[in-house]
């Protein structure tokens, strides 16, 4: 019986992934969910600083994707601390399936790839049924979340970029993930036991947040034990990523994000009038698809007051603090990356794997033959999911590195 129920709501979720873009194109759907900037739920309370990290400061039930899907779902407001040591209000979405579980239910912290400088691209907005210009990207995550729910796991999806949408801010992202887990674990209606095994998973910019959380866990949140971490398409060597994406929205996102997040680097001082204008309006029109429409065929040189800005010391000073690899995670890792990734060169992945291994990490690293960035995202996902399933089941991971 439960198997039939599981197949039923999984089919509904799969259907949602197909019809979501069409649903979100309707004017009524657009008006139904206010953007985070217009939603009081996202407003920080005056006493935010007095609460501990991970404290739940409000909750509401939601209908995932705005559809009648048979999953218990809530959004929680919680306190975290950003990379500038300032208190921050984040929002996380907690999904619990109707599948019964014998013992503490496993929890998956799923980091959606959020490539934006604007809260209209935050996963809490889109998972509630809000519309933005990147609904196709949102739909790509639904089948993976559905598979986790099918397995009986609770799923936590946090707005790890925070209220300022701090793209490629490693510390802010990692802390946002860890405190989102803390909030979900303390929210009793979700039925997540303190003994529940916890796993983390993300791809692309979601992998960035996932691995930063895993690196920071021991120091920042030792109470949050991670049974395992899966991450793919891992962003490494940020300057090279920006160079590869030059002429595309990805490079502009990286440039504006670092210029805004790292003011001490003085990167913003090296922008020309067009670049400064783009920076001023970044938080109102900077989902990746927005930038692609606003700045078609725009190169970094078009926004810069100096030549070869991506090789400038200021750019590298802004990027370096946010590169992965500074601390070896003490959590078993499963990493995967396409050898033909056109967005994030595999050479950076190799360097990160070598760094983690030299630091004593326990990891399995896969060099995927699935073509390209999106090919590995689809083709290797279930390997990452099964790795976490084994950790949740209590299977131990052999120490050391296994690279294939």
From TrEMBL:
Any one GO biological process: lipid catabolic process
SUPFAM superfamilies for the chain: alpha/beta-Hydrolases
Stored InterPro entries: AB_hydrolase_fold, Lipase_secreted
Leader sequence residues: 1-31
Molecular function terms from GO: triacylglycerol lipase activity
Keyword Signal tagged: yes
A Pfam cross-reference name: LIP
Keyword terms, alphabetized: Signal
Protein name according to UniProt: Lipase
